[in-house]
Amino acid sequence: MNTVLIGSQWGDEGKGKIIDVLTSKADYVVRYQGGSNAGHTVIAEGKKRVLRLIPSGILHDGKICVIGNGVVMNPLDLIEEIETLRSTGIEAKGRLFISTRTQMVMLYHRALDKAEEAARVPGKKIGTTGRGIGPAYAAKVSRTGLRCGDMLAEGFLDLVREQVNDTNSKLRMLRNERVDEGDSIEVPGCTINGYQLDAEELVSIYREVQAKLAPYVCDTVPMLHEAKKAGKSILLEGAQGTMLDIDFGTYPFVTSSNPTSGGACIGSGLSPRDIDCVVGVIKAYTTRVGEGPFPTELYDAVDKQDPAGKTMAERGHEFGAVTKRPRRTGWYDAVIARYAQQVNGIDYWALTKLDVMDTLPKIKICVAYELDGKRIDYMPSSSAELARVKPVYEEMDGWMCETSNITKIEDLPPKAKAYVDRLMELSGAKLGILSIGPARESTLRIAL
After folding, report:
1. Exposure letters 287-321 (e unless 16+ CB within 10 A, then b)
2. How many angstroms from the chain centroid is the CA of residue 130?
3. Where are the domains of the chain?
4. Straight-line distance from the first to the last Cα atom of the chain, in angstroms, rounded to the nearest whole number
5. Up-side HSE of residue 382: CA atoms within 13 Å toward CB?
6. Cα 271 from Cα 214, distance rounded (Å)
7. Beta bridge pairs of residue 349
8. In the CATH scheme, what is the code of domain 3-96+219-445?
9. How far is CA 121 from CA 114, 178, 440, in A?
10. Chain mean position to CA 178
11. CA 226, 228, 233 angle in degrees (round to 5)?
12. Is the pLDDT of residue 32 over 80?
C-alpha cells in the first residue's frame, strides 16, 4: 500500500513520530517537498533525533529512503545530517537516493532570503526561517536553479560561479531597500562583505559538496515505479502543513511549496492513481510559528498569556525543531481540520499530543467562525478575512489525569475518549493513530 502522510495544521503536528511508526510497514520512504527549514523529531529507544532532509525511514534497518524532486535540498545540511547519522552507527550510503531533479538550496539563496526579509517593512514580513527555501523555489520556477543532476556534469562549478555573480547584483539592489537596522547580513559557512559574496570561496565549498554527494544522486522516478511494480510499499512524507501550502494555506504567510497530498505526486513522480491512503497528522490543540492569522490563539510568549495556552506550550515543548522559535498555541480548530480533510482527501487522522491536555480542567473546541456578524463553517481564502474571524467554541470537561501510560484506547479516561470522539466527529475522517507521548512506544494504533 502506498501512503501519503501530511501535516494538517501549520506544521509541527508530530509528523516525524507518526512517519517513524508507519515506516515499519513500508519498504520505501520518500520526502516529497520542503527543505531543511522544517525538522522531523523522532524519539526511539530513548534517543532524540531531528531529521531535516533525510526521510525518517533511515532510522529503520533495510528501508530505502528517497529525497524526491519536489524537495529543495541544502547540500551542506544534507552532508551534516549524513555524517551525524554515521557517527551514531547509521550509514546512509546504499539506502539514501537523491533525485537528479531535486533543486539545491545554495548559500547564495540564504543570503537572498535574509536580504529580502530585511527589505520588507514591518507588517509585511513573512517570518521566514532565513534558510533560503523561498529563493530556491523562486529559482526553480524562473528556471535558473541548479539541480542535483548538475553535480554529475563537468560544468557544475562554472554554473555555481555564474549564479553567485548574478546573486551579487540582486544583493546590491536589496541593500539599498533595507529597512532593518544595520548594514550587513550573515550566513553561516560563507563570507559576506558589504552584501557581496565571494564567488571563488563558494566554488571551493561546492567542489567538496560535489565530491561527497554525487554518489547518492540518481533518477529516482524509474526506481519508485519499479518498486511499485514489485509490490513494494511506499510511504511519502511531507514537511510543514496544509495551512502553510503555497496555494491552500494562509497566503502570503505560507511556505513556497505544496505540503498537501497533491504535492506528493508532483514531488515524487508517482501518479495520483498510485496513492492508496492519505493520513493527516493533527494535534489535539493548534500551534503556529511566525507571522499570520491564527483564530484560536491563546499564547505567544509575548502579548498573549492565556494560562491554558501557556500550559500547552510548556507541556508540549512547543519550540521549533530547527528554528527553536517558540510556537504560538491555541485551542483545536475543527474548521481548519475539515478544510485539511477536504483538500487532502484524508482517510485517517493521526491525533497527536493528547497527553498535553491532561491537566486542563476545561477544554474548548472551535466548531465554526463568526465573520462580520455571520456564522460560517468554512475557512476563508483570504488571510485578511481569517484575521477578522471570531471562533465559535464548544466547551468540554477535561479529564485531569495522565494518559501517557495508557496502552489501549479502551482505557482512556471517559472524558478524554469523549474529547477524541468529538474531534473525529467534527473533522471528517476516522481515527487511525492516537499519540499520547513523544516516544515511539507511546502510540495507540487504531486502524493503521
Report:
1. bbbbbbbbbbbbbbbeeeeeebbbbbbeebebebb
2. 15
3. 3-96+219-445, 103-215
4. 11
5. 5
6. 27
7. 280, 431
8. 3.40.440.10
9. 13, 9, 43
10. 29
11. 130
12. yes
Q: How far apart (Å, rounded) are the C-alpha atoms in residues 386 and 290?
A: 16
Q: Which residues contact 158 (CB under 8 A, 6 or more apart)?
A: none
53 neighbors 75 (Cβ within 8 angstroms): no
Q: In terms of Cα–Cα distance, which of 259, 237, 257, 235 is closest to 10? A: 259
Q: Quick check: bond before 272 cis, omega within 30?
A: no
The helix or strand, by DSSP H or E, that contains position 234, with its residue range, turns out to be strand 234-237
Mean pLDDT to the nearest integer, 289-299? 94
| Residue positions counted in the chain | 448
Backbone angles phi, psi at 376, to 5 degrees: -130, 150
Q: At the topology level of CATH, where does 103-215 sit?
A: Adenylosuccinate Synthetase, subunit A; domain 2 (1.10.300)
Q: Retrieve residue 384's grid coordinates.
A: 485578511
Per the CB < 8 A criterion, the answer to whether 141 and 120 are in contact is: no
Q: Evaluate whether 103 touches 73 at the Cβ level (below 8 Å).
A: yes
Radius of gyration for the chain, computed over Cα atoms and rounded to the nearest angstrom: 22
The catalytic residue positions are 12, 40
In the block, which residue shows the cell 495507540?
Answer: 444
Q: pTM for the complete prediction?
A: 0.90
Nearest CA among 423, 430, 419 for reference residue 397: 419
Cell digits of residue 443 = 502510540
What string of DSSP letters covers 15-65?
HHHHHHHHGGG-SEEEE-SB-TTS-EEEEETTEEEEESSS-GGGGSTT-EE
Phi, psi of 187 (to 5 degrees): -130, 115
The pLDDT tens digits of the residues spanning 133-169 come to 889 889 999 999 999 999 999 999 999 999 999 999 9
